[in-house]
Amino acid sequence: MQATLLRRFSAQEVWGGLSVREYDVLYTLARSGGRCRLGGLSQEVYLPQPSLTRLVDRLVVRGLLTREPDPHDGRGVVVVLTGDGAALQREVGGRHAAGVAREFSALTVEELAELARLCRKVLGE
Question: Which segments does the entry list as coiled coil (predicted)?
Answer without folding.
Answer: none
